[in-house]
Here is the input.
Amino acid sequence: MHLFLKSSCCAILAAFCLAQAAFAETIITNLAKEPKEQLALSVLKLALSKSMPGAQFQSLPQFAEQERAVEYIKEGKMSVMWAGTQPAYEQEMIPIRIPLEKGMLGYRIFIIRKGDQPRFDQVKSLADLKKFKAGQGRFWGDTAVLKASNLPVVTPVKYPSLFPMLDGNRFDYFPRAIHEPWSEVEAHKDLNLVVEKHILLVYPFAMYFFVSKDKPQLAEAIRSGFETAIRDGSYDKLFYSNPLVANALAQTHLKDRLVIRIPNPYMSAQTPTNRPELWLNVSKY
Here is the structure.
């Protein structure tokens, strides 16, 4: 019995020490300047506060566009990234399969040019929407989703380019998750842009945390900490009290919008669609 207890204690101690060794490194993330990036980072910090108390965080000195962030993860220059999921990411990295923004990335309203609202008021169907050009980042996961439904898409590489391109008539609308466009329009007051009032484009989509395949213990720490935050209610408290989310739900008037649904043929069968607590219930708003 004493030998068994001694062996068990040694095994637990060894596992603990291994975990601490794995987490000795500083958690390096992308630069979080935009409110939406700050929300993702706050969720990450909450999750790891449950499984890695005292974890230290460091941001990149400059924001890395999505494709570069993937390379940084593979090269060990970044510990964690967050992004809308796509098959290549789930194959090349370890996804933590909990949608960190409750699937809000799949509920899209548009940024358009001032004066164009009457044009969008005439949209009654997906066929009508196909007469307009969307603007999207070239490597974003949901760009492929729009293209799969034959929606015309203009795809620059850099996110900041999309705003002046829209203002300059290079395309007609910029689909944004419901919590994104308000602060973006505010940040680009010098441009002729507003939030569209009529349409809600909906498709299944999740943003995940991703880590390198060389860091399975970090992935497990994020997953287990996230699950704890969901169970104890601290995630919902953080999420719904975030000004970005609270203001979006108050301003968007989802119930009053024309809903246009398109499929997402790229969603993995492992997506946790059977867990309603992980997804936003838009019928409440």
